[in-house]
Amino acid sequence: MISVLSVKNMKKSDEYAIEHIASGRELMYRAGAAVFEILKSYEPPFAIVCGSGNNAGDGYVAALLLRRAGIDCTVYTLSDKRSEDGAFYYEQCLSEGVIFLNFDKASDLRPYKTVVDCILGTGFSGEIRGAAKTAINAINTAGASGAKVVSVDINSGLCGDSGLCAAPKGCVISDLTISIGGFKSGHFLNMAKDCIAQKVNCDIGIVPVEKPYRLLEAGDISPVFAPRKNFSNKSTYGYVALVGGSAKYGGAIRLAHMANAAMRSGAGVATAAVPAGIAPTVSQSVLESTVLPLSDYGGEFRFVEEEIRVLADKYRVIAFGMGAGLGDGAREILKYLLSYYKGTLIVDADGLTLLAAIGTEAARRAECNIVLTPHCGELSRLIGRSSDEILNNPVECVREFASTMVRTDGSERAVVVLLKGAATVVSDGVQAYIVDAGCAGMATAGSGDVLSGVLAAVCANFGRTESRCSLAHTVAAAAYICGKAGEAAERKVGSVSMIASDTVAEISGVVKHLALD
Prior knowledge:
By secondary structure, the chain is of the alpha/beta class. Helices cover 40% and strands 17% of the residues. It has 18 helices and 21 strands.
C-alpha cells in the first residue's frame, strides 16, 4: 500500500523533518532536484511559472539545474514575494543567468514545449483570483495547444485534501503531477482524475508523523483470499444473499448483475432474495445463482419473521436494500437484521435511506459486522452534514462517522463505511483507505448494484482463518476489483456506451490477473 497524507499531516511531517532530518533549504533542494530529474526527459524549451511560496522555490531549484545542464528554460514570476528558502535559490538562479520574466496578461506560454506549474502548493484552498487565475488559464491554453504540462506537488487550484477546484477549469490540467514528499488525498479524490493524467511521488526523506491514509495497490488484494483447495465445496466459500427488488424497482437485470458479480468474485452460492411477485422475472435472468421468493404485497416486501430468521441463519453475508423500496416491510426486515443477524450485513441504496429514518443507533447496537455503502447524498442523510462539507473533506467525514459506530462494550464486530465517488473512500474509524480504481464509464445505472454483488462475495472471506485482513481492507479490496473491472470494460466499449453488465463481464479477468486463483 502507498501512504497518502492529509494536508495537515503533510505540514506536520514537513515541520518534523526540518527539525530532525534536514533543513528546509535542503528539503527544497531535494524536491527541485527530483523535479529536474523527471523534466530531463521532457522537450525544451521550458517555462516554469512560479508563485510566491515554497512551491515556487522548488521551481527555482529545477530551473537552476536545467540551466546548469544547458537546457533552455525561462522562469515566469507572479509575485515579488518569496519564502526565505525560495529567495536563496532565486538569488542563485540570478547569479547563474537563469532568465526571469514577470508574468502578466500579455504573457503567452504557447511557444514552450513544456510548461511547469509551481504557482500554488497543497496548502491552497478556495477560489483562484488575480494573477494566479490568469496564469492558470495561460498554462491550460498552452496545454491545449500541444505543450506538455507538469504540475509540482499538486495542480495549482486543486485542493490538496478534497481534490476539488472552485470552478470548472479553475485549476491547472496536467499531463503529469509530481507529488513531493508523499501523495495527498487531493491527488485522487473528486475532480483529481479529470485534472491529472499521470502522477508520481518523489520521496525527499519526509516521514509521516500521524497515521497516513492507505492507497490500495494490486498486490494488496490477494491476501484477502485464500487459495482454493480441491477438498472443498460451495459452502466453504460462502453463501451470500442479495436482498432487494420491488415492483416499482423491478430490477431483474440489476439483481442478476449483482448475483453474477458475486459469483464471478468467488461466492460459493449467491441468492437473490426478492419479493415473490417479481421472482419469476428475476429467475429468467440468473443461471448459476438461485432465487429466493419472499413474502410480498403488491410486489413490495412483506415482513415475515420466520422467513427472515431462516435467511439470517443460513447466509454468511447479506447485502440489503438495492431496489427494495421504502415500504414498511423493507424497513422491518432491516430492523430485524440489525437486531438478530450475526454475519456480515451490507446496507446499500434504499437500505441506507431506511437506516437514516430508523436512526444509526440501531446499527451501532447491532451484533453483526456492518458495511455501509453510501454515495455523498446518502452519507449526508446519515450524518446530518451537507454534501458540500462531505465533498470538501471526504476521508475525514468517513473516518469520523465510522468511529462513532464502534461499540464500546468490547464487541469484536466491525463496522466499515464505504463512500462511493470518483475515488472510493473506506474506513473502519481507525484506518482509512483510498481506492483509485474506477472510471467515468461506471457513472451508469446499476454500477452500485454490481459493487454490492462483489462486496458480498469478497466479504464472505472475512473471518476465515485463511484470511487475516481486516474488514476495512477486505471492503477496499472489493472496491478495487470492481473498479478495475470497470476500467477494463471502458477500454473495450468506451465511457459513453458502457453499462453495468460490461463491468460484470470483466470481473473474472481482473480476478485472474490479480492471481487470486
